[in-house]
Amino acid sequence: MGMTMTQKILAAKAGLDNVEAGQLISAKLDIVLGNDITTPVAVNEFKKAGFNSVFDKNKVAIVLDHFVPNKDIKAAEQSKTCREFACEHCVSHFYDVGKMGIEHALLPEQGVVTAGDCIIGADSHTCTYGALGAFSTGVGSTDMAAGMATGMAWFKVPSAIKFNLTGKLPNNCSGKDVILTIIGMIGVDGALYKSMEFTGDGAHSLSMDDRLCICNMAIEAGAKNGIFPVDSVTLEYLKGRSERPPVVFEADADAEYEKTIDIDLRKIVPTVACPHLPENTRPASELGNIKIDQVVIGSCTNGRMEDMEAAYNILKGKKVADGIRVIIIPGTMQILRECVERGWYTAFIDAGAVVSTPTCGPCLGGYMGILAAGERCIATTNRNFVGRMGHVDSEVYLASPHTAAASALTGYITEYKEA
Amino acid sequence: MNTQGKAFKYPDNVDTDVIIPARYLNTPDAKELSLHCMEDIDKNFVKEVKAGDVMVAGWNFGCGSSREHAPLVIKTCGTGCVIAKSFARIFYRNAINIGLPILECEEAAEEINKYDEVKVDFDTGVITNVTTGKTYKAQPFPAFIQNIIKSGGLLKSLKEGENRG
User: Fold this and answer.
1) Contacts of residue A188 in chain B, CB cutoff 8 Å?
2) A341 and A296: one domain?
């Protein structure tokens, strides 16, 4: 029996010729990642267990992104723990304020992760890097500690759902609408413990930013990982940036999938996930008059250059609606710099938005845009659970940068239509 | 190993943001964090829970963030076991890694009511609803995972492996 793309990578990393779904394996890791919330717990476990050194200082990445610049004294203490650990163990991929970005925007951009890698991260959205043709999955802090110590992790080899994408996306849609549509179809546990493997001509038509966004939200369907085949778009993206040579894995022609789901990208429409689950999706055009108080454009899901570009193209020369707070958060310092250089930063300010340095901040209700009781936000983030962005009686609607920016101009949830 | 206590009942898709809201994650201190366990959907849980009590929930328990703080606060509150129809995979992994007993059992998760007295035998996977007298059998863990649990968590099992050399 043939193997899926994910299974091929796992077999190689476990030093096995063949693996099958359900098999427990121990695999070699190329990158072990943590952030300012999960790393302190991992550091504590690492020390408690009596480990003295990390397995490879070049294969551990620690990114301060959730609560930095430090939102309060306790957050500052957590950052300090990360900083001291990184210094003590000479962690080469340590990203502090000034260098940092939102981890899942930053690591691909900096070439820290690449095709063929096996990656764990103590952050659920670590599945993002599947866009590069890597096996990448979220774990907890104890797994991070064990990974840092040994360079290995145990996995149950996942079965897979194949998503056969055809056609091209309409201009007012992006990867966000694709993944929200899929989560709406299969539910928040529709891919539980499984891989989501995206293939077909449609997959190749998607930009890298779209692919990163789609794989980012695989966890929102319960998946272990999402993955795209390596093609010319991938290799072009990795060229000059990947610090290790990319390794290309392909699914076998006779690979077994639990099911295949066909998605015609031409039929995707601007989609919104209503409170309080990412599976509660509706076409933006059918939502009627839903008044909003805040708009957030950013996060590890949609804080990349194409997301900023979508926001710029819609907001430039316009004014956000009265009474609407619009917060734009470029995902990395490099993206922020590009926004400044291209004049987009100024255009955002002129439109009445604020622009923050990179942070996860409001996405998880940390800071930089917390909602009061009864308030409603349309956000390009990834979760709309109860209390996710603030008060338990606030609401988050998930959408693409196009839909979020168009909504900022009207003050209610609005489908973007090209003029 | 076993636990006995009263049941706290929750619906499908209980996410890690309601188990422990991120607004409190500026500290890794489990005791401090545990004061806020479940507060966004059940303000009384922390006040009422006693050592050995059991959490009973629907499908996909622990979905969302990878924060290990979630199983950690449930354990720190004194909860002896979580029984659910299914668990989100990172939560499942984290619970095993930190030594919070969890069991998948659809029937038990469906039928046990709030405040029922529940007894769980981890060695056999037998769940007894003492209030109704009905027993259930949960799926046992694979041997590999049982070893992690027996060692007292992932890192301890790794250390044991090192010592065995």
Assistant:
1) 13, 60, 63
2) yes
